[in-house]
Amino acid sequence: MSVAGLIRRSDIDEVRSRTNIADIVGDYVTLKNAGVGSMKGLCPFHEERSPSFHVRPQVGFYHCFGCGEGGDVFTFLQKMDHVTFSEAVERMAARIGYELHYEDGGQASDHGVRARILAANKAAEDFYISQLATKEAEPGRAFLGERGFDQSTAERFGIGFAPRGGALGKHLKSLGYSEEELVTSGLLGRGDRGDVYDRFRGRLVWPIRDVTGQTLGFGARKLLDDDQGPKYLNTPETAVYHKSQVLYGLDLARKDISRGRQVVVVEGYTDVMACHLAGVTTAVATCGTAFGVDHIKIVRRVIGDVDNADTTGTGEVIFTFDPDEAGQKAASRAFSEEQRFAAQTFVAVAPDGLDPCDLRLNKGDDAVRRLIKTRQPMFEFMIKRRLTEHDLETVEGRVAALRAAAPVIAGIRDQSLSIGYTRNLGKWLGMDPAEVGRAVTAARNSAGHPTTPEARREQQAQAEPRQQQQQQAAEFSITDLPVDQPTRQERDALMAILQYPNDVGRELIERVSRVRFVNSTLAVIRDAVATSVDAVYDGDWVATVTREVPESFLTLVQQLAVAPIPERAERIPAYCARLARDLIDRDLLQRKAEVLGALQRTDSAAEPEKYRELQKDSQSIETERRRLRDD
C-alpha cells in the first residue's frame, strides 16, 4: 500500500484557480444569477425555502447566509461527499487533467476508503457490462427485451449482468483490490463461516450513480427461479452508498429537472428507463426504500424549490404510484412529507393501473407522456381518496368523510389553494362551504398549524437547531456589523478588494490596508489583506486572506467574498476602485483635520520649525487627495 503524501501548496492553489466552483456546485445545487458575478440557490447543508446560498465563481468561494457554511471548492466536496482534503484536490486535478506533485516523495491518496470503493465500483460496472453479452446472460437479455429495452438502451443506462460463482471477486482481485476492500464496498459478502462470495449472482444489474456520474452502488434484479433471494437486491450501506440519499437516474435527469423545474418520481429502475425513452427525461426512482426526507432535500436543491413569500412554488414534483395497497401506502407517505416542498405536488396513476414500464410496453410512448401530463394535484388525490372510504349516500357517511378530508385541507400552506379546496370539498360532498370551512378551521387548530404567514415564519425560526444558532453566535458575521455609514464604507471596500482585486489594483489595496478603520472587526480583515497583498493577483487571493484571519473570522471573510455588489457589470471596475479611493480619501481627510488641529495649537513664533513641518504635512495631504481624485 502506497503512502499518501502532502500535496504541494502551489499545486493546490493552481488546481483551485483553474476550477470553476460554479460548475462543481452546480452538480448538486441549481444555481441562478443573483447579480454581477454572483449566483445563488438552495443551501445543500440545511433545509430552507428561500435561497441564501451564494457562490462567486470569480472569487472561487461559496457561503450560506442562512447556516453559515462556506469555503472553496475543496471544502464543498469534503462536506458534500465526505472525502478528505487530499481526495478533493485529487478529484479536481483529475477533472482538469493537472498532474499533482507530493512532498517527500509521497503518492496520491488513492487508497482512501471512499476513493477505493468508487474505483472498485467502476471496475465492477465495466465487468458487469461486459458480461451482458455472454451466453449465461441470456435470461437478462430476455428480461430486457420483454420489457421493450434493446441493447442501445442497456448501454445508455449502463445495465450489466452478474454471473454466478465468484467471477467478479476473482476479476477485481486481479486488478489489485483486496478481499477486505471488496467486502467493505459491498461487492462481496461474507458468510457466517467467514467465507466470501459475490453479492450479486445470476442477476441483471443497474449502476446507481450520484449527480456527477460516479457509481455509488448497484441494484440487482432476480432472473432465475432457483434464486432464493429477494426480487431486488441492493448494495448495502457503505462509505459512499446510503440508500436514503440517492435517487436512481438523477445523473441522467438532473439537467432536464433543473431546466424544466419538474421531477417525476417513479417506483423502479425499469419505470425510469421507460419514462426516459418515452421523452419524460425528468424521471428518477428511490433505491430499495421509501421516498423520504433526504430524497426531498435532493429534489428541492435540483429543481430550485423556492418558497416565495409563503406561496406555492412554481416547480412540480409528480409521483407515480401503483394502484395496489403498497402503492396507496407510498402515496400516503409522500403526502405526509408534502409540506416540505414549496413546489406543487402531483400524483399520476394510470387508469388501468399499469406502471410506466408496462404502460409504455402495452400502449406506447404517448401513453406515458399523457400519464404525466394528466397528473392530478396531490391534495385533490388525497381528498378524493379519503372520500372513497365513506358512503356519501348517507348523512353519516358525508359527515365522516368531511372529518376525514378536512385535515388534508388544513395542512395546505397556500391560503388561496386552501379556500379553493374548501369550496370543492363542499361540492363533492353536497354540503354548505361555510360548514366545510368550519371543519377545516377546527382541524387546523387541533393540529397546531400556524394560520398566518407571520406565525409560519416564527414557527420555522423556532425550529432551527439550537446548536446551529450557538455556532453562528460564536463567529463574526456580516449581519452583526453596525449599520453606521463608516462601517458600511469599510465593509463595501473590503468586499470590492476581495471580489475584484484586479479592478481595485495592488496600489490602492496596499493603501487601504494602511487606512484606520472605525470598526474593529473589519480591521482584522484589513490586517489580513495587508499581510496577503503579495498574492493579490494570484488565483487563490481570497484563500490566502482566509488563512491569515483567526478562525472566528472565517465566516465573515467568506461572506464579504460572496455578498452581491450592487452595481451593473460594466460599472464594476470603476465602482470598486472608487470604493477604495473614497475610503483612502476619508482617512486622508481625518489626517488633515488632525494636522490642522495641531497647527492651531502650535505657536508659530515659539515653535517655528514644528509649525512649518505641520504646514508641509497639510499641503502634502491635500496634494495626495487631489491626485487620488484625479486618478
Helicity level: 40-55%
Low-confidence stretches: 451-473
Strand order of the largest sheet: 1-2-3-4-5
Determine the number of helices (DSSP H or I, runs of at least 4 residues).
Answer: 29
Task: Output the radius of gyration.
Answer: 31 Å
Report a brief summary of the structure:
With 631 residues, the protein is of the alpha+beta class.
Keywords:
631 residues; 52% helix; DNA Primase, Chain A; alpha+beta
Structure in words:
With 631 residues, the protein is α+β, with helices and mostly antiparallel strands. The protein has 5 domains: 9-105, Alpha-Beta Complex (DNA Primase, Chain A), CATH 3.90.580; 113-241, DNA primase DNAg catalytic core, N-terminal domain (Alpha-Beta Complex), CATH 3.90.980; 250-369, Dna Topoisomerase Vi A Subunit, Chain: A, domain 2 (3-Layer(aba) Sandwich), CATH 3.40.1360.10; 384-468, no CATH class; 478-630. It has a 5-stranded antiparallel sheet, with helices on both faces.
